[in-house]
Amino acid sequence: MPILVSGRLCAALVASLFVSTAASAQVQDRTLKFGYSTFEAHPLGQGANKFVELVGQKSGGKIKMKVYPATQLGSETQTISATQGGVQDIVGTSTAPLVGLVKEYAIFDFPFLFSNEKEADAVVDGPVGQTLLAKLSDKNLVGLCFFENGFRHVTNSKRPITTAADVEGLKIRTMQNPVYIDAFKTLGANAVPMPWPEVYTALESGAIDAQENPYGIIYVNKLNEVQKYVSVTKHAYSPWAMIMSKKLWDKLSPEEQKIFVDSCNEAKTYQRQVSRAEDAKIISELKAKGMAINELSPEETAKIKAKLQPVIDKYAPSVGEELVRQAQTSIAGTH
User: Fold this and answer.
1) What is the pLDDT of residues 52-69, one digit of tens each?
2) Which UniProt keywords apply (predicted)?
């Protein structure tokens, strides 16, 4: 009997070793190029580093990534294009620049679509998010998962924004995205689409008065040096898409593909936790650095939202009524 058990153990060990070796054979040594727009200290950068770490662990150290943060490889639009062409392997990007490739991504630009992070998670991790990631395939890209950039707020050098009227006349930088441009024009601002690397200098010189971004972007880019006021508008929520070149994806084994998807999904949970924990700290830091932070009342938020409804009505047909319905269903499911 001991010999039989030993034999079974031996057979099990051999089988385990065979499976392990077979899986290992499907993972090749690779060094990949991964670029994104934020600094490594930002929660997105921390999430990106966690993703790199997890891919390394799950591949047994075979898959390595050279990371290029802080627009070292170009603007988001440029790095998306480079990833499409296979010049860059992986990109982390805001979803707004993707609208030029897949019009349905404009759903994330709808003003006041989400009230809180729970609603946002339900949409990006649910059927809407999966549909949007899948749509990148026709554009030579593969969507892996969504990180969180966060709720966006307006900063400016002129005045606190407490009503819709306070937005009027501000020269505000927006992303190169039609929904954002139309939304701020509707509020009476002079919307100036501009690549992110140019924004600090434009604010410093007075070429523009304002910009809009989540707290983390405001903080790590030291916008307190060129902006006085932060108005907590929460006018939009920005996911951050993790995307791979389809040229690379098609060369990967199923085992390698699984490593990237699993690593992204683990890293997104970590990244969102970091993002949400740091917001409160960042608000205190920005105040300490001299920024004046004000909240909008629920009544004024409702007025601004109503004023922007025509923008949503304009873009809803191109996004697709079914996708909008799915988003609304996911949001309703959180209550």
Assistant:
1) 999 999 999 999 999 999
2) Signal, Transport
